[in-house]
Amino acid sequence: MIHFQHIQSYLKTFFQENSYSRTFVLVDENTKKYTYPVIKNVLPDKHFLIQIKSGEEYKNIETCSQIWQQLTRRQADRQALLINLGGGVIGDMGGFCAATYKRGMAFVQIPTTLLAQTDAATGGKLGVDFQGLKNQIGVFRQPEAIFVDTAFLQTLPLQEMRSGFAEVIKHCLIADAAMWQKISRLDLEQQNWNELVPHSIAIKENITRQDPEEKGLRKVLNFGHTLGHAIESFCLSQPKRKVLHGEAIAAGMLCETWLSVRKTGLSESHLHQMEEFIFSCFGRIKIKSEEINEIARLTLQDKKNTNGIVQCVLLEEMGKPLINQAITLREIKSALKFYLG
Ligand SMILES: NC(=O)c1ccc[n+]([C@@H]2O[C@H](COP(=O)([O-])OP(=O)(O)OC[C@H]3O[C@@H](n4cnc5c(N)ncnc54)[C@H](O)[C@@H]3O)[C@@H](O)[C@H]2O)c1
Ligand SMILES: [Zn+2]
Predict the structure, then answer these.
(1) Angstrom distance (rounded) from CA 262 to CA 135
(2) What are phi and psi for residue 21, nearest 5 degrees?
(3) Fewer CB within 10 Å: C terminus or N terminus of the chain?
């Protein structure tokens, strides 16, 4: 069940209708400061905070171990509840800890970043990174409820807003061409989040409900991610080249739109529109031409590939994705060259 806005009143009702032996709230230093005060007075009087450090580098088994220790120390049983209050890192890792603690305790998601609200909190994918590989260890499981309130976005840094916006754009490109036309006429600051956040959630929910374990249809959500992940991994492996997930995905979407014109008949005018919009909103990630080969090779690592062939999502039209499109390394390199300008 997803509740939108009015978080205090929905949470109040939730705790009137459900009773738990103990309530735990997982936060990092930012969500403790900015978002916990908003919900504190509607939580059960006796609840326990579990605080971890913010950042993807802490999304690992060591941090899970700290969370499980706290739950054990405070005698959480299977009737206890864990509230994951934060971005995608808190949601993925807290959900994973809850799903595995004593074979599963109840948890709810309260996503507080644009990326977590529009993407990470729905779909039931939970997990942590392992040995440098993203989301290598994890499970599928649904929370008791998801509470989304755009008021939390007021304290979110601009770069984080931009990162989340990439997934909003992706949802429009794969499912709603009219909404893409609407958002592409506005800057980031002008977007109407009260309309766009539930719009994105509805698209992701609809897709993941039909294909919860990514056997087919759900792959459309990977649009932009084949090249985007390669760019992200490459930049993260370099000193001082930090890019956020969404920034890399925006670049990936532009490259995959270029490939769509070549391979699946998307019209060139859509590519020009995308190009203008992505560069004006996200800028151009600095990549040197001699780095293209290495980035292209990284696409071979993608989880979606089969038999060493790179499989990608391309667009037939705006709003109409095609899954399992085989692309060659040469095509990938050409797309990256186009991106470099
Ligand atoms: N499960 C899925 O389907 C799915 C989908 C997409 C992404 N993800 C995962 O999501 C993670 C990225 O999530 P993210 O972008 O939310 O990053 P994040 O969780 O690291 O949050 C970004 C930063 O914003 C801070 N923050 C959170 N809420 C805030 C608020 N309201 N005000 C001020 N600061 C706030 C956090 O402390 C952190 O520093 C990745 O680990 C990714 O793998 C999962
Ligand atoms: Zn993504």
Answers:
(1) 32
(2) -65, -35
(3) C
SS3 285: coil
Helix axes 158-175, 268-282, angle to 10 degrees: 170
CA-to-CA distance for 246 and 181, rounded, in angstroms? 20
Please name the residue whose Cα sits nearest to atom 15 of ligand 1.
115
Contact assessment for residue 318 and residue 270, using Cβ atoms and an 8 Å cutoff? yes
Q: What is the pLDDT of residues 93-130, one digit of tens each?
A: 999 999 999 999 999 999 999 999 999 999 999 999 98
Distance CA 101, CA 195 (A): 36
Q: At what angle do helices 245-263 and 268-282 cross, to 10 degrees?
A: 170
Structure letter (DSSP) for residue 206 = H
Given the CA of residue 167, which atom of ligand 1 is nearest to it?
6
Fill in the amino acid letter for 69. Q
DSSP state of 302: -
Q: What angle do CA 134, 243, 319 make, to 5 degrees?
A: 80
Closest CA to 85 of 46, 43, 45, 127: 43
pTM of the predicted protein model: 0.95
CA 263 to centroid of ligand 2, rounded, Å: 23
Q: Determine the atom of ligand 1 nearest the C-alpha atom of 34.
A: 32
Q: Which two tokens stand for residue 265?
A: 């008949």
In total, the chain counts a number of residues equal to: 341
User: What's the pLDDT tens digit per position in 205-219?
Assistant: 999 999 999 899 999
Q: Is 187 exposed, middle or buried (0-12, 13-18, 19+ CB in 10 A)?
A: exposed
